[in-house]
Design a protein that fits this description.
Layout (H helix, E strand, L loop, with lengths): L2 H11 L3 H12 L3 H10 L7 E7 L5 H14 L4 E7 L8 H8 L9 E7 L4 H17 L4 E7 L3 H7 L4 E6 L12 H6 L2 E4 L7 H13 L11 E3 L8 H14 L5 H29 L2 H12 L5 H11 L1
Helix pairs in contact: 1-2, 1-3, 2-3, 2-6, 4-10, 6-7
The structure holds guanosine-5'-triphosphate (GTP) and magnesium ion (MG).
Guanosine-5'-triphosphate binds next to helix 4.
Amino acid sequence: MTTTLENWAAQIRAGDVRAIARAVSAIENQTSDAEALLKALFPYTGRACRVGITGAPGTGKSTLVDRLADHYRAEKKSVGIIAVDPSSPFTGGAILGDRIRMQGHAGDEGIFIRSMATRGYLGGLAQAAGDTALLLDAAGKDTILVETVGVGQGEIEIVRLADCTIVVLVPGMGDDVQSLKAGLMEIADIFVVNKCDREGAGQFEQRLRAILQIVPECDGWKPPVVRTVATEGQGIDELAHQIAAFRQHFASAPNRSAREIAYWKEWLLRLLHARLIERVATHISESDFDALASEVATRKKDPYAAVNEILYRL
Ligand SMILES: Nc1nc2c(ncn2[C@@H]2O[C@H](COP(=O)(O)OP(=O)(O)OP(=O)(O)O)[C@@H](O)[C@H]2O)c(=O)[nH]1
Ligand SMILES: [Mg+2]
């Protein structure tokens, strides 16, 4: 490793904000530095608690993240925030709103905030968010909050990078419990019913609890339901308490190791997938690829033979 890279890694581990920001950019732009840096930092990761916060647009995720960050800062814990917006091709729009809201933390060295939007394909975004979480972990952040809008598979892939996943729901707005996305229900370790200042919150919570009764426990953990009014900071202490309880529950073997292995298996598969596609792109030109696809389209070749041909060329 070159000394510049060594210095950079040391600055990151010391929590230097500019060094961290530069590393996130390197990750986003997929420079070769980024990989070398993450390799150097990897041995120092595994300490942070990664909390994923997902839910439909406008449910109050950013407000919750903001309040949770306040809670942890009051306990003198350092915080990293990654706001991921897979629907936006730019770092802007709603995320910009988040940034403005988060400016209450400006000047606080104990908190690092970064927004990420889609660049290229979704798999890339999940990887970039995961790499950034590793980076912040190595930088000594105690808690890493990852916010993402929960609508599709790509987002679910992003929250899977967390140790603990919070699904945010709100009463009303036709967001009926019945219509909850099955995928979101399955990934929740903790449910938050936010905007409990709204009418119908109690009823909504009851219906949610009734549905959860038939959901089986996972490794002895039954997802709790926390009521919040994020704008007022209500229920935040209870939410932090449930996150800590979840962490405690999975802190010991065998639950912890099984989760960790499943987590890294998914990570390895994604990386392998990305690397294979990369290699294919360096060995086979776009026009070669088009020619193969055209042969399949005209039934000159079957798709299995075409893929085998590509693999053979690697
Ligand atoms: N009444 C009420 N409004 C809330 C509550 N929490 C958040 N809001 C408001 O709901 C709106 C959306 O909040 P955000 O925190 O931006 O929601 P989000 O889920 O991050 O939104 P996206 O990132 O755009 O998906 C804002 O106007 C908040 O002030 C709450 O508990 N009660
Ligand atoms: Mg938001």
